[in-house]
Amino acid sequence: MPLKKVQNMIFRRARELSFNNAARHSRKGAISSSHREFLGTEELRTLRLLSFNIQVGITTQQYRHYLTRSWQHFLPCPARQQNLDRIARLIREYDVVALQEVDGGSLRSNFINQIEYLADRAGFPWWYQQLNRNLGQFAQHSNGLLTRCHPEMLEDHKLPGLIPGRGAIVAELGDNNPLLVVIMHLSLSRRGREMQLEYVRRLIDNHEHVVLMGDMNTHADQLLKDSPLAGAGLRSASMDFKTFPSWKPKKSLDHILISDGLKANSYEVVDFPQSDHLPIAVEIELPKNLHLMSRSVPIIH
């Protein structure tokens, strides 16, 4: 049998096993609440979205920092707390925030859950941590969701892949024809991404209003035209702007994709070179039949 045929058979079998494994490990998530009194409530007609790979609060502004600051991936650093405070001040202006490369509380983060910390400092009533790689006290590799709108449904999905450790947070906002928000951090390899996007496609297929957010490790044109998302009725709200590396962006890796029925009023790459990725922000106009309530809580200093 030709080698190419053997490779394809192995890949198909690996994909089947990965899908079965991911399906077994999808579960309902329990959204965490601040348990503080609301400062105010308002009905939204637009929704401000932000996606940011924060690189566990490490400042990277040159390629050499990957070497000289690599120890910060394992050990605590006094500057990390100040970096998180700067990030908190940035994200206060948004309604839904997707975070990638966040630590859930380990040695390197001084055992602080960075998602909870940012929710407290930015006044978000609800947050969720998705733990994707659990290295015990040494690292808690996670994705995060911060939201001012209470999710009617939240699910934690372990994505298939050649190497385990990727996930998607799935939330429904609104109870009548809701907005489906999917937060993800996709694989570096194209084959891994194909498997993950095929899984995500199944999650979104029966929903009218969809937002996909995260570090997708490829450009939007490939995502929309040459991946399992092709034909899904999605478009790039972030216009394939370059986000990596933050100090001299050359690659478009971070995206906010929206369904065709949603209108983007504005979009930008935020000039905030804190991580090795730049954050992306989009404001969408909500459909008339979708009613979302935004709430804020006191900020913890």
What keywords describe this structure?
seven-stranded mixed β-sheet, 301 residues, alpha+beta
Task: Please describe what this structure looks like.
With 301 residues, this protein is of the alpha+beta class. It has a single domain (3-296), classed as Endonuclease/exonuclease/phosphatase (Deoxyribonuclease I, Chain A, 4-Layer Sandwich). It is built from 6 helices and 16 strands. It has a 7-stranded mixed β-sheet. Helix 3 packs across helix 4. The chain starts with a helix and ends in a 5-residue tail after the last strand.
Rounded to an integer in angstroms, the radius of gyration calculated over CA atoms is 19 Å
- The outline comes out as globular
- Widest sheet, order of strands: 1-8-9-10-11-13-12
Largest sheet features: 7 strands, mixed
Helicity level? 10-25%
- What is the total number of structural domains? 1
CATH topology: Deoxyribonuclease I, Chain A
Average the pLDDT over all residues and give the rounded result. 90
- Give the number of helices: 6
* CATH H-level superfamily title: Endonuclease/exonuclease/phosphatase
Question: Structural class given helices, strands, pairing?
Answer: alpha+beta
